[in-house]
Amino acid sequence: MINIKTEKEIKYMKKGGHILHEVLMEVMRAIKPGVTELEIDKLAEKLIREKGGEPGFKKVKGYDYSVCMSTNDVVVHGIPGNYVFKEGDVVGVDCGVFYEGLHTDMAETIIVPAQKAKSKKQKDNIDKFLAVGSEALDAGIAEAVIGKRIGHIGRTIQDIVEKQNGYSIVRSLIGHGVGHELHEEPEVPGYLIGRVEDTPKIREGMTIAVEVIYNMGKKSVSLDKDGWTIRTSDGTLAGLFERSILITKEGPILLTV
Fold first, then answer.
1. Residue 136 phi/psi, 5° resolution?
2. How many domains does the chain have?
3. What Cα–Cα distance (Å) separates residue 149 from each residue in 6, 163, 186?
4. CA angle 141, 145, 151 (to 5 degrees)
5. Is residue 1 part of a domain?
6. What percent of the chain has pLDDT over 70?
7. What is the pTM for the complete model shown?
């Protein structure tokens, strides 16, 4: 069942989403050569609690961290470890905030800044890769209007990532409803499954997490022995962009802002 949020619930999600946005932006600025994944995780938890929220991901059974780290070939759900960031690494951070009983979810991917690029061509390729993910996210969110369907979001993301730029949307990982649970109905794939007409209608009061989960190479992924970390099967780079949004009569509104 798709959860339609009340005005009070939306108010809390906006507050939680604002906390999450502030935290994630500060965390991304802290990613520099010499910093470890675990240090980023600890910083995220510290900031979330200082701002009055709780780490949403710590409410997931069996997961003991505040963020998921996607470094280089890690697609999603990477457990923060002792890896030390170096210049040119591609780093995605997925984070959630639980505030007044409601979840928001957000992710961003960057390239670790370098004083001097080792290869301009390689950096240009990565910059383009990340720009495409960000563009696809914005375009997908723009489709989230009353009168359209979830399939419009996925088709738009897929067209930009795959047809226009030749990258690959990961099929086994998707966006989702968000709110009382971290993952609620409806499923929000970043690609089109079947016909648009057969996908759920977009309705006022829905809160969803739109995600662009994509690889520079092939779409196939593999699971590490830790049971969480998912990587590209061919070792190529992965990217992850995500925002939680609210559907209104005036159009989609970012909650994580």
1. -65, -40
2. 1
3. 21, 21, 11
4. 70
5. no
6. 98
7. 0.97
